[in-house]
Specification:
Distance between the termini: 76 Å
Helix content: 40-55%
Structural class: mainly alpha
Largest sheet: 2 strands, antiparallel
Strand content: under 5%
Order of helices and strands: EEHHHHHH
Radius of gyration: 24 Å
Number of strands: 2
Shape: elongated
Number of domains: 2
Number of helices: 6
CATH architecture of the largest domain: Orthogonal Bundle
Length: 129
């Protein structure tokens, strides 16, 4: 398994798909990287030579923000929003949707699968004694 940017790339996948296992690299960026290094996107990751793996490593690590750096920047951006007390920061603190989604019905996973509805709402009649 080739190791690029601290991530083990799966051998049995085409290199175009295998590069997407690196955080910060999607399908489009993967195609762009392979065209810059002139590597065929259909080759399997196991068939790459050490020279091709080295080219990929150099290009990715020098030109793109990936893995730890990307995650750190994302966390710092969220922390900044929380510190300045913006609306988005407050939504992050409360654990609610940040981008304006409705919360009456569709945020069960964000709110912890809260189900506040009760049966039909009508209680059965009391038994006579």
């Amino acid at each position: 398994m080739p190791r690029i940017a601290g991530v083990l790339i799966p051998d049995n996948k085409q290199i175009e798909t295998a590069l997407t296992y690196i955080c910060g690299i999607g399908r489009t960026l993967s195609k762009k990287i392979l065209s810059e290094t002139k590597i065929d996107p259909r080759t399997r990751a196991a068939k790459l030579t050490q020279q091709e793996i080295g080219e990929l490593k150099d290009l990715i690590e020098k030109n793109y923000k990936i893995e730890g750096d990307l995650r750190r920047d994302k966390m710092m951006n969220i922390k900044r929003l929380k510190d300045i007390g913006s609306w988005r920061g407050l939504r992050h603190i409360k654990g609610l949707p940040v981008r304006g989604q409705r919360t009456k019905t569709n945020t069960r996973t964000v709110r912890g699968n809260v189900r506040k509805t009760v049966g039909s709402g009508r209680k059965p009649a009391a038994e006579s004694t």
